[in-house]
Records
---
Amino acid sequence: MNNTMAMKDLVCGMDVEAATAAGRTEYKGQTYYFCGPKCKEKFDLNPEHYLSKSAGTPKSGHGCC
Ligand SMILES: [Zn+2]
């Protein structure tokens, strides 16, 4: 079985794999994965902000890391 799971980093819009994600956080019983600790930090500060605009529109560029 392949354990690879593509998740989306809601902060920067990057695809991250659950197995290799550099950051993760739990919010309301759901686990979210991030490309790095910076994105995790940003999410932790304001999760609702990122959840509300998670419709799959990546920002232009990857400004976090
Ligand atoms: Zn990121």
Note: Residues 9, 11-12, 14, 34-36, 39, 64-65 surround zinc ion (CB under 6 Å).
---
Amino acid sequence: MNCYCKYCGHKAPSIHSLTGSLCLRHPSGPNKGKHALYEGSEKNEYTCKFCGKTYPLILSLTSSLCSRHPDGSNKGKHEPTS
Ligand SMILES: [Zn+2]
Ligand SMILES: [Zn+2]
């Protein structure tokens, strides 16, 4: 089973290897923390939990700014629903 990071969409073969390396899109800043497990299942499309936009990959969802981010409009990236 593949594991994905909910911040950047990084794919890893196990939770251990995913959470053992630094995340370029960590909310605290690039490489300020480890990847975090996306707990949902693999899907054909992923929905942002703040604004409802859909993307075919977590990677593309988390790469663009969210107009309804809780920190303010375009103050953070989309986050996938699980
Ligand atoms: Zn990551
Ligand atoms: Zn969004």
Note: The first helix runs from residue 15 to 19.
